Amino acid sequence: MSIEKREVAKLEPEAGADERRSIYDILEEEITNLGISDAEKVKRLSKLLQMRNKRVNVLLAGATGAGKSSTVNALFNMEVAKVGVGVDPETATITKYELDNLILWDTPGLGDDVKTDKKIKKDIVKKLNEISDDGSPLIDLVIVILDASSKDLGTSYDLINNVLIPVLGAEAEKRILVALNQSDVAMKGNHWDAENNKPDEILQKHLEEKATSVRKRIAEATGLKLSPIYFCAGYKEDGQPQRAPYNLTKLLYHIVKATPKDKRLAFIDNLNDEEENWTYDDRKKDYRKETFKSFFQSVGSSIRECSQNGGNIGDMILGVPGKLIGRIMGGGYGAVRGFFGSLFGKRYDKACE
Ligand SMILES: Nc1nc2c(ncn2[C@@H]2O[C@H](COP(=O)(O)OP(=O)(O)O)[C@@H](O)[C@H]2O)c(=O)[nH]1
Ligand SMILES: [Mg+2]
């Protein structure tokens, strides 16, 4: 059966049909149904299995109240997370959240007292030095959440400059993401355009300056260039409606980009499916589309391939044509509908443009 025929046959996936299916299962089915030789299928399916066995480990750190919990709640479907108890007393302060292949390590807030901070920092160092089964470092990425409204970021600079960077060394630029949360209150709530859920020009300028000054402070101390992303995790006040995040898609884009290609699919099944969370961004880039591309770089959704009528699989890693992937994502697949839904709408091939 040719790929073209299959595409026609499956043009309108039933809404909700794939509600609880894992992206790995869906890709398995797509590969199985491709019009290619059995030998080629086996090759691609075994690559998929390799990916399925990979886990992505993300460590979250920051000062108390910066918004680590709010950030992971906004990004991921934390309600289904399995919470782990540390077996190693030397890293006992760190909580493990398991979302299928996505593992989040939440560290306690720093900056409350010196003695506690010392213990937490020691645990972070231990965790960063852990090696996974395949011999690579366990932690793929460290996200440091800073409070953009705070005048005193000393605790965070200490963490980044004196703990994280020395442990990660030359890799630090690639493996640390600095995120400035609470952008909405960075000027005491002034200049936040609540109606459009974004900063006005003055606040935006302020946030950009803040990001630059954080970058400078890190560069001066360590020589490394880390560019902070400012965002807003969203929050809920008593009696008020939930406020939507800002620049969360941008943050996710940078998280995915910083993750090894063969592990990126691990995020997909557990994204927060609240579409509003992914709606408000600075629009400097189409982050949704860019994130989509990043997700599927390992799967073979090379954008170029799409225009080639889906027939030429070329050297794509998993060899699933982009058109099919666009349809999986834009169609009835539950977990990511909130994220990709409005990107594709009914035009499944849009992603390929
Ligand atoms: N205004 C505002 N408040 C936030 C934001 N993110 C978190 N908060 C609030 O900041 C407080 C601390 O957040 P939390 O996620 O518990 O911080 P954690 O200690 O780092 O885990 C909570 O009251 C949140 O509602 C944000 O983007 N804007
Ligand atoms: Mg917390």
Chart the SSEs and their pairings.
Elements: H1 3-9, H2 23-32, H3 38-52, E1 56-62, H4 68-75, E2 82-84, E3 95-99, E4 102-106, H5 114-128, E5 141-147, H6 154-168, H7 172-175, E6 176-181, E7 192-193, E8 198-199, H8 201-222, E9 229-230, H9 248-257, H10 287-295, H11 303-307, H12 322-330, H13 334-344
Parallel strand pairs: 1-4, 1-5, 5-6, 6-9
Antiparallel strand pairs: 2-3, 3-4, 7-8
Helix pairs in contact: 2-3, 5-6, 6-8, 9-10, 12-13
Bound molecules: guanosine-5'-diphosphate and magnesium ion (MG).
What ranges have pLDDT less than 50 throughout 5 or more consecutive residues?
A: 1-18, 301-315, 346-353
CATH superfamily of the largest domain: P-loop containing nucleotide triphosphate hydrolases
- State the helical fraction: 25-40%
- First-residue to last-residue Cα separation: 25 Å
Write down the Rg.
Answer: 21 Å
